[in-house]
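Complex 410.
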Amino acid sequence: MAYYSIQNIPLTDLAKDFGTPLYVYDADKIREKILLLQQSFLGINLTIKFAAKSNTNLSILRLMRANGVEMDVVSPQELEMGLIAGYEGGQITFTPSGVHFSEIEYAVSKGAIVNLDNLSVLEKFGQTYGSSQPCLIRIKPHVFGGGNEKIMTAHPESKFGISIHQKAEILALVDKYNINVIGLHQHTGSDIKDGKTFEQAASALFDFAYDFKDLQIIDLGGGFKVPYSPEDPGVNMKEVGQIMSDAFRAFCQKYGRELRLWVEPGKFLVSESGTFLAETNVVKHDPVKTFVGINSGLNHLIRPMMYGSYHYIFNASNQDSSKQAEYRVTGYICETDTFSFDYAGKQNERLLNEVKEGDIIALANAGAYGFTMASHYNSRFLPAEVLVDGGVARVIRKRETMEDLLRNQE
Ligand code: LLP
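Predicted structure with LLP bound:
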């Protein structure tokens, strides 16, 4: 899995030219994943809605837009980003969770399609707009799926969506206010590999959908697992795409109308495009283990600490594998921040080509939920971001300065 360059530019050159810590994205990889997704859903009308929470850099959004990918957002700010990136409101779906109704009104005012996930919000939507505005309804299908508990969103106890058992209440509100429900939505969770889980969730939504007469869209969410580790190849997209397309075609036939299928992947489109680069500040030979301390921490890439997630780690400065050692890769934050976790979510040591102070350590699969989940903890600056496209690397977000930290403070 270790690769030492992006479009022939060595990672070490990128680190030298742009400094560290640094997020680097490979535009070709993103295009490749878009194409693979398109080629996996055959014989149906497919729209891809990029789950922008995974990466909201404007340059990434523009790249998505240029490749025919629309957008799914969760906040007014993400919606604004989309508009700034050149999207029209109608290409953006607003799929929030637990927001104030004023945010729904704001999204409607920008022409976005809203996705409602609560009965009280559905009622307010009916009272406010009657049949004048379209909407989707997010259903919770009571399906278990997702890499860990924190990223499972469709099981009975999840806060997301309206329970599939509340169909009567939904239909009563739709009828009462003549609400213009153009689509139904469900998102099972993140890191799902198994075609059966997607099929189960889709078929629950299809069964639910027959009572809604004027549907144009079924949105089956995202969650396609990416290969975080060499042992885990991730989702077989062609296979899952075919399962979902077949099920969708059968549904359309029974429903009596050609509908449009939306999917909203985040990780699948951007995770593998991203590599996170940091420099080795210290190699600490402790009697018990050897630590590699890098110039970053949970403030920049929180996935390992938040979910016990596995990220592939390698020494970008040393391609000689004849001398390797076990290292625990840690951060510089005043917490036990560790980047190396095993598949079971426990801190571990990684076998790396011998690390010296000053070496560049690379973490793969950092394109999704990397920068967007970064914080200023310990008053550290956010990393810079670089996009490599057409063999050229350019900064798409500058490194922060002290001014950024002080802005807005008294
Ligand atoms: N659609 C909805 C409604 C979602 O809530 C999400 C993710 C997606 C699509 C995209 O899921 P994806 O294809 O990226 O798996 N921060 C966590 C993942 C949280 C996902 C939140 N919702 C992580 O880094 O693993």
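The chain has two domains: 41-268, 273-406.
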